[in-house]
């Protein structure tokens, strides 16, 4: 790679040395790649989109269902490999995160040296891409995808740790436990929650160098960067929330400020003086199904982190506000998902009065655990051992449950009659997953707290099993804060427990987005699914307003004579 350096690259090195006392070696590969896929050939395969053939081959082997990239994945991959900033917005389950990971795997590895005259022995691989995600389960899901692709690579696959590592808060374990590995063997891709990166860098600013990053991805960006609606009529509540955001900007904002500096503070002159500098600011990629105007305002105007050269990739987008264009009306949330609301009380369970009668959607057949997928993952940390389970059970057996038992019983009844393989139950963020699992097990439901590091609590469902057999149905319990972006291909049902599971930070738009994302765990990649919200009588007007605002018609659930 070194021998192919062009004169311009050499100049860049000189600049680099002067400005940063480090030498960027792998830029040559990026320039070569740019030539490779700036051709006008129609993009039909991952190779056409710019992926190296060995990587594409490993993808086909690891994911037999993945044969060609979707149109948006093709342009995503080309734009990422061209080094462009990207805003990616497409509906839930359309393959955004998956496409992103493929593009990042293909990026050339950043290699630096602190001594320009030294030979290659002093080359130091650096973290090329930092992928920020809102919670640990999404981080481990991405790691799992990368692990599967790595294992499917030809002879002598590289170690997973050299390709990707995860930095997250790990229950009772401290996040710094993973640091020595990151320091000694920096991964090509670091997947992390913003809070864990901020915490680590506060403790040790040299843990890794943000300035050496080539790419920064914020997946589920709107969840990590809270914004308030624009043109909001000023009132006390709104001003209070604005102040709160100023005082507590949140770890993602803090981290972006650290990585990019506050570009809006640069004067035009100081910008001019930077024009010739070879230091590239890291390419910035934002992705979500729900990117609202106020978030774009934050990146374009308030922080000036993006400008008009950004590649805006949009496809199926819900109308989130008046001026937003609906790019297509074939949204999975309306065409592939049926929405049900059950009102549960001591007197029984009834459908929402406004629900219409409709043909049940044909659900895919049940699947069993994917044995091939049960190989332990080589992660930087092992799953937390839950030694408190027994004592918790004793405690729960002696205390009344704070959870509404009528709602839980409705979930248990529908689960028993309608779920073929695996379903998800989303409980309010303030509720205890352990307690919900305990209560449901007392009702005879095979409920488990979702944890993507544990085989039967989520990991088995990360890849689609090939065989279609009826398995012992499982109900995975989680809160809305740990479900964004999670992908279980065999999932058919999402249960939402009470309207409290939807309310997000007392922010109506966030609440609507929460419903969109919870629903989006099914109806993925053209597979049908059901979303069943179970509420008490008081919450009926409220859930009707949510569905009405999203232009969703609730459908009666009456296939099994329960109601
Ligand atoms: N080109 C493809 N062909 C077939 N399946 C694909 C393709 N790309 C992705 N998938 C599958 O689609 C599923 C959804 O992918 P992914 O989680 O990336 O969607 P997403 O758009 O990021 O969803 P969300 O908005 O909920 O985060 C995954 O199971 C993935 O394996």
Automatic annotation (TrEMBL):
InterPro entries: DEAD/DEAH_box_helicase_dom, Helicase_ATP-bd, Helicase_C-like, P-loop_NTPase, RNA_helicase_DEAD_Q_motif. Belongs to the DEAD box helicase family. It holds the Pfam family Helicase_C. This is ATP-dependent RNA helicase. It comes from Lentinula detonsa. Its main location: nucleus. RNA helicase. Residues 376-390 have a biased composition (Polar residues). PROSITE patterns: HELICASE_ATP_BIND_1, HELICASE_CTER, Q_MOTIF. Residues 44-74 form the DEAD-box RNA helicase Q domain. A motif (Q motif) lies at residues 44-74. It catalyses: ATP + H2O = ADP + phosphate + H(+). Residues 77-309 form the Helicase ATP-binding domain. Residues 402-563 form the Helicase C-terminal domain. The keyword Metal-binding does not apply. The Q motif is unique to and characteristic of the DEAD box family of RNA helicases and controls ATP binding and hydrolysis. GO terms for biological process: rRNA processing. Residues 369-390 are annotated as: Disordered. SMART domains: DEXDc (SM00487), HELICc (SM00490). SUPFAM superfamilies: P-loop containing nucleoside triphosphate hydrolases. It is found in: Nucleus, Nucleolus. One of its GO terms (cellular component) is nucleolus. The keyword Nucleotide-binding applies. Keywords: ATP-binding, Helicase, Hydrolase, Nucleotide-binding, RNA-binding, rRNA processing. Its EC number is 3.6.4.13.
């Amino acid at each position: 790679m070194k021998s192919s350096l062009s004169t311009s690259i050499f100049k860049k090195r000189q600049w680099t040395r002067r400005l940063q006392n480090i030498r960027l070696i792998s830029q040559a590969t990026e320039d070569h790649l740019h030539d490779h896929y700036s051709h006008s050939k129609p993009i039909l395969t991952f190779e056409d989109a710019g992926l190296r053939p060995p990587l594409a081959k490993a993808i086909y082997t690891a994911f037999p269902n993945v044969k060609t990239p979707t149109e948006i994945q093709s342009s995503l991959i080309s734009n990422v490999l061209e080094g462009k900033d990207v805003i990616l917005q497409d509906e839930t389950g359309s393959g955004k995160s998956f496409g992103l990971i493929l593009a990042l795997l293909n990026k050339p590895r950043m290699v630096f040296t602190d001594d320009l005259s030294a030979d290659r022995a002093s080359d130091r691989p650096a973290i090329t891409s930092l992928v920020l995600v809102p919670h640990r389960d999404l981080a481990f899901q991405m790691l799992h995808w990368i692990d599967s692709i790595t294992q499917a690579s030809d002879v002598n696959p590289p170690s997973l740790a050299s390709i990707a590592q995860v930095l997250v808060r790990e229950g009772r374990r401290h996040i710094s436990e993973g640091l020595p590995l990151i320091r000694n063997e920096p991964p090509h891709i670091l997947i992390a929650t913003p809070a864990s990166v901020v915490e680590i860098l506060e403790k040790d600013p040299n843990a890794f160098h943000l300035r050496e990053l080539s790419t920064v991805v914020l997946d589920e960006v709107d969840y990590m960067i809270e914004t308030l609606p624009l043109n909001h009529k000023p009132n006390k509540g709104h001003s209070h929330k604005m102040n709160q955001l100023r005082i507590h900007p949140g770890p993602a904002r803090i981290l972006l400020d650290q990585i990019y500096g506050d570009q809006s503070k640069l004067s035009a002159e100081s910008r001019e003086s930077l024009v010739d500098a070879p230091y590239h600011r890291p390419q910035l990629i934002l992705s979500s199904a729900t990117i609202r105007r106020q978030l774009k305002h934050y990146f374009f105007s308030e922080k000036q982190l993006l400008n008009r050269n950004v590649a805006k990739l949009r496809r199926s987008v819900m109308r989130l506000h008046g001026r937003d264009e609906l790019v297509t009306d074939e949204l999975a949330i309306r065409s592939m998902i049926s929405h049900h609301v059950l009102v549960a009380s001591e007197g029984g369970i009834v459908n929402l009065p406004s629900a219409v009668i409709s043909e049940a959607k044909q659900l895919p057949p049940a699947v069993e655990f994917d044995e091939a997928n049960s190989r332990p993952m080589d992660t930087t940390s092992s799953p937390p051992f839950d030694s408190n389970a027994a004592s918790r059970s004793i405690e729960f057996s002696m205390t009344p449950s704070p959870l509404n038992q009528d709602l839980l019983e409705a979930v248990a009844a529908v689960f028993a009659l309608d779920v073929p393989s695996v379903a998800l139950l989303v409980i309010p963020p303030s509720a205890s997953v352990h307690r919900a699992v305990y209560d449901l097990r007392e009702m005879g439901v095979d409920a488990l707290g979702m944890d993507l590091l544990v085989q039967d609590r989520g990991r088995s469902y990360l890849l689609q099993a090939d065989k279609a057999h009826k398995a012992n149905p499982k109900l995975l319990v989680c809160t809305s804060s740990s479900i964004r972006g999670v992908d279980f291909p065999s999932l058919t049902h999402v249960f939402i427990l009470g309207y409290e599971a939807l309310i997000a930070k007392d922010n109506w738009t966030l609440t609507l987005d929460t419903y969109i994302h919870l629903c989006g765990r099914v109806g993925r990649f053209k597979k049908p699914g059901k979303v069943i919200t179970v509420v008490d009588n008081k919450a009926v007007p409220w859930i009707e307003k949510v569905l009405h605002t999203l232009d969703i018609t609730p459908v009666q659930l009456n296939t099994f004579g329960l109601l």
